[in-house]
Amino acid sequence: MSRVGEKIKIAREESKMTQKQLAKKLGVAESFINELELGRKIANEQVLQRISKALNKNVNDIGMSFESEVFKEEKAPSYSSIKKDKSKDGETKDIWNQAFGDVLRNVPIYKYDLRKAIGYRELPVHSNKIEGFAQDKVMFLEIENDEMLGYRMQKGDIAFCHSIKEIENNSLCFIEYNGIRAVRYIKRLDNSKLLILSNKGTMQTETVYIKEVTPIAKLLKLEIKL
């Protein structure tokens, strides 16, 4: 058990709170609290502040705890083995990964079928959100064709998106209509109709009923393939 984990456990028990109750109060899984207390996970400062507030006790000792863990790794016996040294470096790296596990998140990259992630991008988490959106509502989308060249978007580019349930006026959206999934620029004509625009060198427009279009995501940023 790590020093921070032990401190959390003592504070929780003094508050007469179970792991399940603390987890519910923080909005996390009970297993996360258990792993923190056992020292299998190292929480960042933001998480420790939330725990301190929930227990009304200061458990924010992350800096000292992390340094002691690294110190133990550095003082581990050496047997003049290259393989052993590599293992030690890997373990130290794991500690860093755990320490920053709640700061960075892997955001998946999908093709238009959304069936399986083809890669990931690491993005920072602020106030439990990524770019101001819930962590489970963001993704990257690989542009699959040149139908939006007029909007400086071509095959192979990567777009950052957040999921939507309703079409937003004057926005680039990933939608499904007429049996296809596509990225289109959307304009509302009235309460029942949309103007859908694409541009592969020349502007193409379609007028469709809103009920015929399923919104999937709104595009926010674009990584251009050079």
Automatic annotation (TrEMBL):
* Domain HTH cro/C1-type stretches: 8-62
Against SUPFAM superfamilies, the record matches this protein to:
lambda repressor-like DNA-binding domains, LexA/Signal peptidase
Q: Which GO terms describe its molecular function?
A: DNA binding
In the UniProt record, the signal sequence range is none
TM annotation in the entry: none
The cross-references to InterPro entries, in alphabetical order and at most eight, read:
Cro/C1-type_HTH, Lambda_DNA-bd_dom_sf, LexA/Signal_pep-like_sf, Peptidase_S24_S26A/B/C
Q: Which UniProt keywords apply?
A: DNA-binding
The organism's superkingdom is given as Bacteria
What protein name does the entry list? Helix-turn-helix
Q: What is this organism's lineage?
A: Bacteria, Bacillati, Bacillota, Clostridia, Eubacteriales
